[in-house]
User: Which sequence fits this backbone?
């Protein structure tokens, strides 16, 4: 059997599969269904300084081969994440977990990261500068190289854990933003967050989603994600986590060939709660089919 | 929650746009009336959450209205297998009902009350059911509720059958110790105002996953934020906060 392990910012993962933030809660819902220790790791629900309800409903719309969400970073706030969610997570997951953080100011990001830096089980900080569903924050930090670099510097100043900046595809030059983060000290880049999308109900002639627009994800966006991962991975020296529409072991391998060291899986978890487990189980078969002995050998294989 | 494949036994129209599908498969995770299943359909990204009408002897029955392209495609299925998540949602708690129970269903909110009525009757309780529809042609399941021993009232908004008006117009004259309801939100609000006792309400919301992962269907309640799919769809009267 081929070797599945990869090393992400100095920490070895048994395999490159990481459920993406916002599709896996804090793990324990899925732990009722299968042993989530089979995962490489997972990125927990986006956490902010203060508790947030998020956006009004409807928050979900369906698309051809995908969906739009405008949840808007619903979470109990970093204090309660630490006091209530992480103890529950610890009971069902014994590997380092990826903490996903969002904010509305540079100070917010630093505050939340500093709190989570003290948690032993947190292996990496994935800093979301790309949420399309909140106003006056989130994505606005990820649409300019200067702002993304400023957040990176502020977070790096308060943590010794690896900092991965999660980027938005809703930009004119993703490479410039990734390079700015790298220069500011980022240890890794993850991409792509959702693409800004919209659906309109023909009967009511109103947007399907209360927030009007939301983040488009699912298999429809996979080619865009592969392209952006390829562009960024070839422009930076730090590791890249690829995500966006991944829904099969074949997609994982394609993403790694494009340059991803590890692969996050998002919307697929919502359709099939066993998606990540099944993809991990299917990887050896697909690796054998394409003569891959060691998954880490294929990272960035496409020049 | 369980993921398994069900064989379609039957899929028949009850009215112009309401269909009843019976399926054979593993129903062991359906433990309570008021729960729902989430159905994968070929060619559609998201699953379709549909309330459980009945689950007995390995047969799952669902009743659904054609409202979009997904349910339209579903209505055309004649045989084959469906990938279904079962055992979703909290369901109705029958322990609080007292002896004289009132069930109020509006339109496609009627189906989950059938399994609930069966359970309440099996517990020796007296069950009155008010079924509300817009017009005569939309009525379904009147006889089925009578057959299991419920006292059935039908209301139509246009007065073409039964009591003219809304379910709340029939509710006034019925004596009850507790109530359970499912239907469109305006109806739920009217019942909330008109009801004399405590009761339980089943809500509907657009869902992403249906099992608590995505926070797509959250609502605010007196006791904090709840997910309609996981902490609901049934909420108790005392915890409901109407947003608008």
Assistant:
């Amino acid at each position: 059997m081929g070797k599945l392990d990869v090393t992400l910012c100095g920490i070895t993962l048994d395999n490159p599969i990481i459920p993406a933030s916002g599709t896996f809660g804090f793990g324990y819902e899925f732990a009722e269904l299968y042993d989530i220790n089979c995962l490489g790791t997972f990125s927990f629900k986006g956490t902010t300084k203060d508790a947030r309800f998020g956006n009004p409903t409807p928050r979900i719309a369906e698309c051809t081969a995908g969906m739009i969400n405008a949840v808007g970073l619903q979470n109990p706030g970093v204090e309660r994440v630490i006091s209530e969610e992480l103890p529950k997570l610890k009971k069902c997951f014994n590997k380092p977990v990826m903490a996903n953080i969002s904010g509305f100011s540079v100070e917010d990001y630093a505050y939340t990261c500093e709190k989570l830096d003290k948690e032993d089980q947190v292996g990496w900080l994935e800093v979301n500068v790309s949420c399309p569903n909140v106003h006056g924050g989130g994505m606005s930090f990820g649409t300019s190289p200067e702002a993304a670099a400023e957040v990176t510097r502020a977070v790096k100043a308060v943590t010794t854990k690896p900092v991965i900046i999660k980027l938005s595809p809703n930009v004119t030059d993703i490479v410039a933003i990734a390079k700015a983060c790298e220069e500011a000290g980022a240890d890794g880049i993850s991409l792509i967050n959702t693409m800004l999308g919209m659906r309109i109900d023909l009967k009511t002639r109103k947007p399907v989603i209360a927030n009007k627009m939301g983040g488009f994800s699912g298999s429809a966006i996979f080619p865009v994600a592969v392209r952006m991962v390829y562009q960024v991975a070839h422009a930076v020296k730090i590791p890249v986590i690829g995500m966006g529409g991944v829904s099969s072991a074949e997609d994982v391998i394609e993403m790694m060939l494009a340059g991803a060291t590890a692969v996050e899986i998002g919307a697929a978890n919502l359709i099939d709660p066993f998606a990540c487990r099944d993809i991990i189980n299917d990887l050896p078969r697909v690796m054998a089919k394409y003569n891959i002995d060691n998954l880490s050998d294929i990272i960035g294989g496409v020049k | 929650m369980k993921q398994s494949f069900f064989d379609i036994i039957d899929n028949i129209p009850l009215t112009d746009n309401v269909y009843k599908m019976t399926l054979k498969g593993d129903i062991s995770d359906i433990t309570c009336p008021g729960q729902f299943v989430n159905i994968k359909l070929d060619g559609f990204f998201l699953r379709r959450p549909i309330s459980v009408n009945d689950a007995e002897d390995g047969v799952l029955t669902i009743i659904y209205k054609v409202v979009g392209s997904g349910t339209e495609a579903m209505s055309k299925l004649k045989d084959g297998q469906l990938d279904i998540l079962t055992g979703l949602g909290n369901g109705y708690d029958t322990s609080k009902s007292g002896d004289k129970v009132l069930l109020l269903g509006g339109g496609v909110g009627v189906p989950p009350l059938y399994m609930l009525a069966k359970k309440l009757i099996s517990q020796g309780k007296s069950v009155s059911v008010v079924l509300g529809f817009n017009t005569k042609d939309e009525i379904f399941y009147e006889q089925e509720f009578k057959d299991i021993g419920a006292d059935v009232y039908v209301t139509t908004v246009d007065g073409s059958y039964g009591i003219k008006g809304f379910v709340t117009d029939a509710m006034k004259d019925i004596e009850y110790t507790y109530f359970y309801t499912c239907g469109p939100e305006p109806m739920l609000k009217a019942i909330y105002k008109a009801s004399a006792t405590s009761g339980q309400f089943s809500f509907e919301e657009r869902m992403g996953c249906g099992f608590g992962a995505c926070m797509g269907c959250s609502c605010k309640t007196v006791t904090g934020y709840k997910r309609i799919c996981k902490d609901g769809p049934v909420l108790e009267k005392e915890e409901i906060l109407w947003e608008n």
Notes: The longest helix of chain B spans residues 111-122. Chain B has three domains: 2-88, 94-202, 203-244.
